[in-house]
Amino acid sequence: MRNLGQFLDTYARLHGTHIAYEMKRGFRAEKLSFTDVYALALKTSTFLHSRGLTKGDTVVIWAPNMPEYAILYYACWLLGIVAVPIDIRTTTETRQMFVAAARCKLGFKSKAIAGDLSPDAIPTYHLEDLIELVRPLPELKELPDVAADDLAEIAFTSGTTGTPKGVRLTHHNFLTNVSALCQTFPFKQEYRTLSLLPLSHAFEQVVDMLAVFQVGSTVTYLERINQVTIMNALRRHGITTAFVVPQFLQLLMTGIEREVEKSGARRIWSALQRIAPFLPMRVRRAMFYPFRQRLGTHLQFFCCGSAPLNNKLARKWEHLGIAIYEGYGATETTAVLTLNTPSAKHPGSVGKALPGARIEIDPATHEIIAQGPNISPGYFQDMPKTQQVFSHGWYRTGDIGRLDAEGYLYITGREVSRIVLPGGEKVYPEDIEKRFNAHPLVRESCVIGVKREEGERVHAAIITRYPQKLNEIVRQVNQGLSSHEQVLEWSLWHHDDFPRTPILKIDRAKVANAIEKRGETPAAVQLAESDTLRSLIARSKKIPAAQIKETDVLTTDLALDSLQRVELLSLIEQDLGVAVAEPAISEHTTVAQLRELIQNAEAIPPDLPFHALNYAPFIVRLRVLLQTLLVFPLHALFVPLEVSGQENLASLELPAIFYFNHMGIMDAVCALRALPLAIRRKLVIAATQDLWHEWRRPFVEFWGGGFPFDTRHNIKASLELTGEFLDNGFSVLIAPEGGISKDGTLQPFKAGTGFIATHMHAQVVPIKIDPAYRSIFPPMNELIFENLPKKRKRIWVRIGQPMAFSNQTSIEQATQKIRQAMIEL
């Protein structure tokens, strides 16, 4: 194939209705098949064409990862338009310089990012609106002839080398790199990948967008990326792999080890880590199963690149039975140049060159140089730099390395970060950092050169849980270093992590600046909660931020109800990157106290207490069988039913949400009996906390397929769980009154009724049970015998028309409409 448009056509047709992309927005996951992606890309091409864009024009994209990002890329490539992606953390000045240099004619930005793309008024659209924007349009039929050597992208990057530059990448660069990667690594269609690195970078485009598209794997995108959302996604979406930088591996491992500490299992953890190297991977996975539960049961491996990998960290993951495959490349090499694979792996190396690529070490400088069809033709509008870096078909990487006898590449340093001592000796910080990071008491280190009167000196900033042993740590590491590499200055880094560049490499400049200003915290690691928190509260409450005082109580002074608190906690998690446990907020919590909770936030909100096994396919089939053969006949002995309205379900789109009026104990059985088997085969019941304790819990969970819906202390987790069931194809049965009616009349509905209807993207069906049911089964009592039926009586159950609500409908209006529909039954 000659271009990326043909690539899209070929593999979209091959994989058809298989899911290509999914993304959880709010409480539900949106899914797009390969066929959907192709059709939407063609429609987006129509949109771009209608805006006057033609082959060779440029479109700027400034947004976090989402399915629309990939669709827009494909649309541009179908038309021969050049994509200009910009990292979301790029400064205003640099971003505007990129847009002006590339002469972009159209822009797409995210609603979540403040600021304008450019001072020049280029037409700009919100990327989140792309699908709705193009869905009514026809698919573009006539596409231009796009050649292999035509430009596909200008990848602007400043990297660690200072001056920003635009790397030119052609269709041929991408196609050859993806083809070589898929030849080398055994990707499988059944893999499920979690997208964590920015789609504005070539690495993510090649591996998570193109390579997995070629093999037909599903990619999951996250609305926000932090430890909580990553852990949840790994488990809930059955993720098998992710392409990451070392920082993500450290982030997740820190979370696991924190849980180990909290559970008091440190000794067991350490003992298993010592045993693991002598056992097969499958045995390791089984042995560490209790510790891996938060990661899900499907995770198999990580591919890691972009920054040096701490070997000690890699071994920890391997001990858990999760393989780590390290690779190497640069934007100029269209991302991937070398890679370790399951069949060819040397720990400590970054693997062998991909097919078609050639790597050599410059004998004079030990610099790594590369040649191949994946090498960029040069920099955009910068001939001097192109001639300096690209010479006679070879790309000079700026990295120092060596090749072993088998062709495995080892990175030993980078020219730009080297320290030149007063005597002329050169020190490569990466070498020393590897020694520090291998020390059992060191979590991570950053080695820099600090300027003194006599010249540069080697300084190590160290993150450790044992600050009292810092001097001893340095002494032990120095014993293994050559005389010119000796660390003469060191300091304790008082934060959980070092400041990072947009691609999550340690920002050495900011570390150096912080060390020079002893006692000052680098701006990059400070959370500017002051204005941000007030802004988030203002967004939740829809009031000016200036009205919010530190002494305001959230529930009384600001009148934040439970659902507004859920929204606020979601915004805090998204914008500040921390998760505040919902139960930590009481009716007396002030703004100042919430700020303190944010500053100290570490704990992940507790999961709701339920056994996932009760919703496994074979248990669901058993439950439906037992309900049909045992529970329903016993219930019918006392409650003969007259069911009407089943014809309303003929055109119902499943999964759906069924609401019923709460009349007494076991009244949900009336609703279950009224529903067809096709619906009951995959249906769960939202059970309040009153039903979720003592002897009732196993009955509700196993026999009824109930799940906990805690409206008092953990409504956010309850809504998340409801959305997860719907995503997995389960319809949900809910009592909207929140409790049993005392006199049989319909009580006011909880606000959550309308919230679920407008935010879960599922049709709503009212089911009304005859109030006379109360005379058969009384309201719930603590003693078991008091819950037995009192008499036999025929009652009616009526099923209403399905209703649909958009998220533009107000919660109050949706709640009223659903209640009115119930009244009219």
From TrEMBL:
SUPFAM superfamilies: Acetyl-CoA synthetase-like, ACP-like, Glycerol-3-phosphate (1)-acyltransferase. It comes from the Bacteria. Pfam families: Acyltransferase, AMP-binding, AMP-binding_C_3, PP-binding. One of its GO terms (biological process) is fatty acid metabolic process. SMART domains: PlsC (SM00563). GO terms for molecular function: acyltransferase activity; medium-chain fatty acid-CoA ligase activity. Keywords: Ligase. InterPro entries: ACP-like_sf, AMP-bd_C_sf, AMP-binding_CS, AMP-dep_synth/lig_dom, ANL_N_sf, Plipid/glycerol_acylTrfase, PP-bd_ACP. Residues 527-602 form the Carrier domain. Belongs to the ATP-dependent AMP-binding enzyme family. PANTHER family: ACYL-COA SYNTHETASE, MEDIUM-CHAIN ACYL-COA LIGASE ACSF2, MITOCHONDRIAL. This is AMP-binding protein. It comes from Dictyobacter aurantiacus.
